[in-house]
Amino acid sequence: MRAAVLHETGQDKLEVLDDVEAVGFGPGKVRIRVRATGLCHSDLSAMSGVLPQPAPFVPGHEGAGEVVETGEGVTRLEEGDRVVVCWLPACGSCPSCRRGQSELCLTGFMNAGTPNFRRPGGDVFGFAGTGTFAEEVVVDAGCAVPIPDDVPFDIAALIGCGVTTGLGAALNTADVTAGSSVAVIGCGGVGISAIQGARLRGAAEIVAVDPVRTRREAALRFGATRAVAPDELADTKQQLTGGEGFDYVFEVVGRSATARTAYETTRRGGTLVVVGAGAMDDFLQLSMFELFFDEKRILPSLYGGGDVVRSYERTIALWRAGRVDLDGLITHRVPLADINEALDQMRTGTALRTCVEM
C-alpha cells in the first residue's frame, strides 16, 4: 500500500512509497482503510523533532475511514463501520481514567513506541501510534471511534484532533463565561476552533491574533470580533480593556515567547490556556512574585481537556445544528501524492486545514 514516510527526523519532505505494509494486526486490533486525513501542526513538529517520535515514521494522526477487519475479542466494531481515528484512547482503568481525566491516559502514548508499519528495509513507526498518511493503518480497537453515517470522512478527520482540541480548550478547560473578553494567539485550525468555542459560550469580545493576513480574515468569519497582527496586540489590549488585559487568553502556537505574551495579555485573576504543543527544552519563565501577585490561572489543555469520545459526540451535535462550521475549515484538498504541497501550505499559513483524500 501507499504511505508517506519521513526517513529521518529533521527532514522537511516526505516520500510517498508503495511498499509499505500496515502490521500488528491481531487480538484487540482493527485494520482501517483511511479515507481522509487532515494535516495538524503537530505533524510538522514531529518531523522537525520538536515533538519526540521515533523515525522512520508515517506522520498523520487526524484521520477517518472504515473498518476493513477486526481482530479476536473486538466486539463493538465490525467490518464496514465508519470511524474516526483517536490517537489518545482511554483505557478506562488507569488512575487518570478512574479520576475522570481520561485525556491524561498514557495508553495512546505507549502505542507510539511500537512500529505499526513495515517496509522491505525494516520497521516504520506511526506518529502518535497511528500514522494516517497511509492508505491503511492497524490500531488498537480503542483508537477507532464509530461515527454516524451522515458525517463525511473529511469532517470526521478534523474532529479527530484539531477541532476537538480547540473547542475543548474553550468549552472544557477554560469554561469561558458569557460576556467575557477573549484573545486567541495563533489562528490555524485549532485556534479557529477555540474562537468558535468562545463564540458558543457567548464571549463579548474575541480577538484573533496571527501574523498571516488570510488567517486573520478567516478568524472574523468564524466568530472573532477583531483580528490583529501580533505587533498590534498591545494597542488592542489597551483599547478594549483599558490596559487591564483579557479575561481569557489562548496560546495556540506552542512557544515560550508567545506564552509569555499571552501571560502579559491576560488580566490579573484571568485565565491563560496553553493549547500549543511545544518543545521539551523550550522553557517559560515567570517570576515567583508575579505568579503570587497576579493570581492568573495557567491551564494547559491536552486534546481539549475532557473525555474525548464525549467531545466527539458534542462536536457532531453542534455541527449538525449549524452551531459550529467545520466545512469551512477545510481550505485545500490534495491527494496523498501531493502531501508535500500540503505541508508547505501549512508552513506558510496558506491553509487553515488541508484535507488529504485517499
Could you write a compact summary of the structure shown?
With 358 residues, the chain is of the alpha/beta class.
Protein architecture, described:
Helices cover 30% and strands 26% of the residues. With 358 residues, the chain is α/β, with parallel strands linked by helices. The strands form four sheets. Strands 4, 6, 7, 10, 11, 18 and 19 form a seven-stranded mixed sheet that branches. It has a six-stranded parallel sheet with strand order 14-13-12-15-16-17, with helices on both faces. Helix 5 (162-174) crosses helix 6 and helix 5 (162-174) packs across helix 11 (308-320). It is globular, with a radius of gyration of 20 Å.
Largest sheet: 7 strands, mixed
Low-confidence stretches: none
Which band does the percent of strand residues land in?
Answer: 25-35%
End-to-end separation in angstroms reads: 11 Å
What's the tally of helices?
12
What is the averaged pLDDT score?
95
Overall spatial form? globular
State Rg. 20 Å
Please estimate the helix content: 25-40%
How is the quaternary structure best described? single chain
Instruction: Tell me how many strands there are.
Output: 19
Structural class category = alpha/beta
Using brief descriptors, characterize the structure shown:
single chain; 358 residues; alpha/beta; 7-stranded mixed sheet; 6-stranded parallel sheet; 19 strands
Set out the fold topology.
Elements: E1 3-5, E2 15-17, E3 21-22, E4 29-38, H1 41-48, E5 57-58, E6 62-70, E7 82-85, H2 95-98, H3 107-111, E8 117-119, E9 122-126, E10 136-140, E11 144-146, H4 153-159, H5 162-174, E12 181-185, H6 189-200, E13 205-209, H7 213-221, E14 226-228, H8 233-241, E15 246-251, H9 256-265, E16 266-274, H10 288-294, E17 297-300, H11 308-320, E18 330-335, H12 339-348, E19 353-357
Helix pairs in contact: 5-6, 5-11
